[in-house]
Target: Protein kinase domain-containing protein
Amino acid sequence: MDSFVARSCSTRRCTPLMLGGVVIAFDAFKTHDIDEFKKIISDVLNREQTFEEVRTITFLGALDRVLHPMGFKIQVEHKTFVGAHGRAIEEDVSRKLEQYVSALQSSAVECEEKGVEIQVKIIVGAPLIDVIVEEISSLRATWTILDRKLKKETRSCYLKNLSCKVAQVRDNLCLEILRPYNIDTGYRNTKHKLIYSLGKAVPLPPTQEDESDMTSTRSLPITPMIRSRNPNNCLMAPPMTNSEEKLVSSDDESDTSPHQESQGEIEIGEEDKHDGSRQVENEDDDVDLSYSEMKIEAGEYSSDTSPEDNDPKEENKAGDEVDDEIQECSNVSDQPFPCDSEKTNACLESLRSSYSLVQTATDDFSFDKFLGEGGHEVEYKGKLSDSKEESKAGEEVEDEIQERSDKPFPRDSKKTNACLDPLGCSYSIVQSATDDFSFDNFIGEGGYGIVYKGKLSDGQLVAVKVQKETKPQTSAEFLAEVSPLSAARHANIVPLLGYCSKGNLRILIYEYIHNKSLEWHLFDNAAGVLEWSQRYAIAVGAAKGLRFLHECCESPIVHCNVRPSNVMLTQDLIPMLGDFGLAKYSTSKFDKQRNFLGNLGYVAPEGSIGCVKADVYAFGIVLAQLVSGRKAVDAVPGDQQQSIREWALSLIESLALDDLVDPRLGAAYCTYELYNMARAAYSCLQTAPLSRPTLTEIVCILEGENDHLRHVSSNLYPMIIRAEDCSLLIR
Ligand SMILES: Nc1ncnc2c1ncn2[C@@H]1O[C@H](COP(=O)(O)OP(=O)(O)OP(=O)(O)O)[C@@H](O)[C@H]1O
Model:
């Protein structure tokens, strides 16, 4: 052993896996104490007489089943290594590999002194025994050590099929030699049970110098993950074929030492083949782009780090005139709505004028200007006049509305349209904008009110929502309640531009969103079929909007009515959440019952609608609808109704994710995004509210920030939590 060539730390870093040496085979699905593995290493190093000429110790972990992050066990077979299952397998393998590599780093020092390399390889395939034998043959092991947790009854099979020398770990952790000589088994490596593999060398612990290098490249793993690349599946390493063996043997000709590099098996970037010290980032560049987003890099995720990737400069530009609290949100990278555009501000300010202007705009809420009605409001079309005289007259007439001035509108009032009262919206403006709430301007009626389309004097289109019934409250109380809603500005939130009240009438004025609601796009016969990429983008955008309401406003805003009809779409299909925070305004028993029934498919099992976890549940239903194109509650034969939740959860639990997809899409969908959408929906639809994720977590799941799942409740992701909690025990 003393004669072994010492290698420098830098060359160890990126050394491809080596052939030969001692292979320690273990069942990677089971929990292992790393101290046991370290003891095996010490025993091998100390028994030079037995394990002569050892240059490499390979920990070969085999998986014939993996624990899906959703908590199910997946039996691995070739046919399961597709789509969502494939991703789950890949993630599990990556995670395990990183854990073993980092746990074995301290032993790498001991090995380095004796010129021995340690490497870890995780292989996936079934049956376990076949895949292990096949891989040991490919690795050309001189010795195989069978871990004590491999099934004892299979020992004779290993002995029969392995041509190399064989030892085993006994329960007292001592090594026992089973066969100290090679045999010819006639094994020809033709079974190809291996489905997928990933391996890499265990590096020495970083020196101080290395650490400073690493800080400059952020918290990248100490050693790079070496991935096999296959034209058909970039992460899949096929069993070594004869031609690959030849490739290795041709290298052997120039290097007669047993220290051979398996170039045909674990493929890395060209540079790596020549220069082992290549930087990690470059290596990742070699990974197929379609897979790069799913890469898991230990330690890179911080729960403090926002996954948002918006350009902060753009946000700051917009932020000049945005409220302070919105600025705070932009600091955590939530994109504020660019509400300071001149046009928006002018309209916003114009809408803060007196009730009389609304009255004028809608011809005193004439039926002609009636647009539609929600459960809470009636919307009228109104036409605004920008004449100063009219505004003045309106203010004089509507003294009552002056009440509102004791609750100043919390926004910048510098840009006040000269003709309007900056403290609230004039009724006459709304009245005129909606042509006195003319029928022509009626858009529709929802649970809270009737909605009218309106046009302001500067041409801006608005949706005017007139509450159908209101609880007794003063105008001041009303304004105090809605002003936080009007302060909520985000790219995925329908801006509340203004509001006014007259007597019992409560009016909310929103920006008009041109392209109808998600409900229409999913379910109306006149709508075209939304493409998969559009659905996925809508899911992510809507989640960001809801995240903003829950997590970025001064005090959290519970939407209370998350459903496709409240996801409005722009012409570019950007989703905008509307109707948020309104449920509390509904007072009549009839409306409450109507809203409850209307929302039936979206109400969480605990029956609450006024808390963030209830919003999360409803969002899970929306996700399932986006994927499947199904109604929240569908009629099934026999006058029965089936909730989308039951239907979707049973498919997700049986991992039949492809069956979730809207049949109108055929095969035109991305399996990775489907996996993320299903995973997010599954988490949202948990029965226990506390098991449901936060919106930040949902965005991470949707965008494939899988490492973040470890922050989600342990009952959903036991495997991940356990591994994290116990550094020595690896599952
Ligand atoms: N900002 C908006 N821009 C354009 N159309 C809108 C806007 N807000 C609402 N609408 C339309 O007005 C109609 C009524 O909407 P409303 O939100 O009141 O009812 P709903 O969403 O059908 O039910 P619910 O009150 O339960 O949310 C719907 O057709 C909706 O698409």
Notes: The radius of gyration is 32 Å. Residues 372, 374-375, 443-449, 451, 463, 465, 494, 510, 512-513, 516-517, 561, 565-566, 568, 578-579, 598 surround adenosine-5'-triphosphate (CB under 6 Å).
